[in-house]
Amino acid sequence: MAQALSGLGVVVIGRNEGERLLRCLKSVLPFSAQVVYVDSGSRDDSVAQAQNLGVDVVALDMAQAFTAARARNAGMRQLKIGLPQVACVQFVDGDCEIRDGWLETAWQFLQQRADVVAVCGRRRERFPERSIYNLMCDVEWNTPAGKAKACGGDAMMRVSAFEAVSGFRDDLIAGEEPELCVRLRANGGVVWRLDTEMTWHDAAILRFSSWWRRTARGGYAFAEGTLLHGAPPERHWVQETRRIWLWGMLIPVLTGVLTALFGGWMLSGLLLYPVQAVRLGWRNRQRGLPQPWRMGGLMVIGKFAELTGALTFYYRRLLRQRGRLIEYK
Fold this sequence. Notes:
nine-stranded mixed sheet; alpha/beta; Spore Coat Polysaccharide Biosynthesis Protein SpsA, Chain A; globular; 11 helices; single chain
């Protein structure tokens, strides 16, 4: 029988996750002294299901703009009330399921490495075969093990380090985990990625429009992250943002100007896009990835989606508007 890890708490966030939420909660309940579920306005029976399992539920005030960062912070505050001696917290999204052995492995690693403040493992897509978009998510999460710059939404963190930097930024609608990791590392902490299975994730991205919105949200995060931490030495997401401007705007605009000045043959500049798609596809093929050429094409198209997200960020900033969540599900 599983034994709860003393001093370990879990914060789960979600909305309308249904059976996925049940799988998530059941995967952590046997191992944690305290589990908090933060619900962000579910219209299904998520809250009732969590309560039936004995989980401490926080219903987020939806009169305020929702962000995953705000939900996680609210969950952390509630966790401290129910478990004042909490030493480590596992954050996990409600559409994920913790893999067998992960909590014990991550917990032990943090006990052995006092310098590490956040640890994550391998997040895998549950149904990569259902769409090219799910497959791309699975590839995106397959990052090298060892010392890392950032973790994702599923990670175990040392509570003292989390509180020392005041947790997540409530106002970030995307990219809140890497931004937090920037501050954790600046405060002397180490982020580590273990070569260990951590979670199953169900992205459920089956349509191009959903993938486009998710990719646009990434562009929004890149632009905001660069504004916050783009200065040396961190240069947070500077390269990613530059690629957005290059492929999403500079090449098309420059091609248009040159075509107006020198004639239609200058439209040949747009051949850079299929060339780039082939280059990326070949790289994917060399890595042994399935559907390498389709992924290469979507990676190029994605720069235009990212551009819309980046432009949305700058537009809202210009008008002093608060960021609103870019949802894709």
